[in-house]
Amino acid sequence: MEIWHWITEHWVLSTVLTLTSVTLLIALYDVLQQRHTIMHNFPVVGHLRYLLEMIGPEIRQYFIAQDKEELPFSRDERSWIYSTAKETNNTFGFGTNEQIYGVGYPVIKHAAFPIPDQAMKFPNGDKSWCPSLKIIGAAHGRARPFRPASVLNISAMSFGSLGYRAVSALNAGALTAGCYHNTGEGGISPYHALGADVMWQLGTGYFGARDENGRFSLDRLAEQVEQFPQVRLIEIKLSQGAKPGKGGILPGAKVTDEIARIRGIPVGQDCLSPNSHSEFDSVDSLIDFIESVASRTGLPVGIKSAIGKIGFWEQLSRRMKERGHGPDFISIDGAEGGTGAAPLTFADHVALPFKIGFQRVYPMFQAEGISNNITWIGSGKLGFPDRAIVAFAMGCDLVQVAREAMMAIGCIQAQKCHTGHCPAGVATQNRWLQAGLNIKDKAKRLSGYVRGFRRELVTLSMAGGYRHPGQFTADDIEFSTGVNKFSTLSSILGYTADPVSEAEVDAIFQLDD
Ligand SMILES: Cc1cc2nc3c(=O)[nH]c(=O)nc-3n(C[C@H](O)[C@H](O)[C@H](O)COP(=O)(O)O)c2cc1C
To answer: Which of 83, 213, 221, 380 has fewest C-beta within 10 Å?
Structure first.
């Protein structure tokens, strides 16, 4: 009582004494500990280093970085996604800020006579209507071929890597926007079953299609397909651009009870998928596996891969031609692609960037005369209309986006997906952090982004004299290739993609008449 009385009488002195004692204790601890040199050599102030390191990215993002500077997505790019998602004004005033003479700068060539607005007959007047020109699986006679209702779709991101609210928002948003939603390699969760079309991804862990010994089971896969009628496509993941040749990584901090149950793994431990598939180890056994899954389920089956050694693709195109079987779609992911967690060298130095990889592979299938039987899907920072148009001109039929979809539902590019501490509640399992993510609101944002994106694609197509972005050719695009020098994409690529006929475009417009 007396001490308390003394403290209240001399509160300034007692505060100073307390702070001094705490500082001395910290200093003593710093000097005695042997783990951190900086803290030992600079007791107390050494802690500032860790604090600054922790908040450095946010400080740079909010105060220092220029509009075009941040990576992997600049502030301008993120602003475009945010405003498109919110359906607010996403136009820019005063003219371009880009270095349009800079090497690598792309230009889309417009037509002297664009397609007039009144000549376009959108079903239900929906100016964002832009379905796939190809029906996936039709060329291989699959029992349940599928025409995606959108050329822009959501790329693989597992429940595990993302929280249940984020997955739910993506699925509900995809339903409204009419695009499909890729499950990622973590299997199908209840949050993927809110109604959108689903592409089920099978990674090396075969989550959702394992027997009690953890091995792949075709029976289990067929059961899941029956249980989830939303599944319209199956994607076998060979690799992804950010970590090719490395299995999936779900850090223990994200392995909750529910995720452990869905995947059949222990709670709280790192979930490391093997780096290679157990069901096939050659081109022919891969084709056999695809055929067995496709004939059992009736669904179109494809592969996802980043591009590294090219021999595999030469063989695949040759054997597909010889056997008349193989993937119904091929998703090519660029090295610039994202990940929930990857070793830095894999993210930075393994696999080719999207445009280079695609350019190496696609013409091999053209040379065999089978490129048109396959639906080509591109990914790797393609979530902007200009980049998607370049991808279409190169031969892509569809594009898939992952991080851009995350940003549409609130991701601020904090780049903490691997820690479980995503401040936006997107790439985390932490209940508190997720609590701020309103599923209904964010689903609307996702839908706003996808529809706004497609509306812009259609408008650009009309400016180019086309009714569908798939009609862009590599002669319609030029890249700056030097001082005052622009070259056509076709001359850079050394090929032109399979042409799209007016009849193919007529076919989709008649679909919904
Ligand atoms: C958080 C996160 C999780 C991902 N999980 C998977 C996955 O399970 N399987 C996969 O094939 N790719 C995965 N990816 C890669 C994306 O599907 C996509 O291929 C890549 O990010 C390129 O698209 P983007 O540039 O639009 O993000 C993931 C990416 C992110 C950001």
So the answer is: 213
Which residues, other chains included, contact 251 with Cβ-Cβ below 8 Å and sequence gap of 6+? 270, 341, 418, 419, 420
The DSSP letter of residue 109 is: P
Q: What's the N-to-C CA distance of the chain in angstroms? A: 87
Query: With 60 as the cut, is the pLDDT of residue 45 above it?
Result: yes
Could you tell me the distance, in angstroms and rounded to a whole number, from the CA of residue 333 to the centre of ligand 1? 9
Question: In this structure, are 154 and 236 located in the same domain?
Answer: yes
243 shares a domain with 177: yes
Determine the Cα–Cα distance for residues 435 and 20; give it in Å rounded to an integer.
39
Per the structure, the complete domain to which residue 19 belongs is given by 2-64
Q: Do 60 and 113 belong together in one domain?
A: no
237-293 per-position pLDDT tens digit: 999 988 888 887 888 888 999 998 888 788 898 888 899 999 999 999 999 999 999
Query: Cβ contacts of residue 131 below 8 Å, gap of 6+?
Result: 147, 148, 149, 150, 151, 508, 511
Q: Are 337 and 240 in contact (CB under 8 A)?
A: yes
**C-alpha 113 to ligand 1 mean position (Å):** 39
| Distance set, CA 319 to CA 316, 327, 497 (Å) | 5, 11, 21
Model-wide pTM > 0.90: yes
Q: Is residue 99 part of a domain?
A: no
161 lines ligand 1 (CB under 6 A): yes
Give, using CA atoms, the residue closest to atom 10 of ligand 1.
Answer: 156
Tokens of 137: 């699986």
Q: How far apart are CA 155 and CA 9, in angstroms?
A: 65
CATH of the domain at 145: 3.20.20.70
Task: Kindly list the distances between the CA atom of residue 117 and the CA atoms of 455, 467, 513, in Å, as whole numbers in the listed order.
Answer: 13, 10, 17
H/E stretch holding 181 reads strand 181-182
Instruction: Pick the atom of ligand 1 nearest to 186's CA.
Output: 8
pLDDT digit string, tens, across residues 429-472: 999 999 999 999 999 999 999 999 999 999 999 999 999 999 99
Contact 179, 153 (CB under 8 A): yes
How many A from CA of 379 to the centre of ligand 1?
9
Number of structural domains found in the chain = 2
Tokens 């610039």 sit at which residue? 336
Q: To 10 degrees, the CA torsion angle through 486, 93, 177, 443?
A: 130
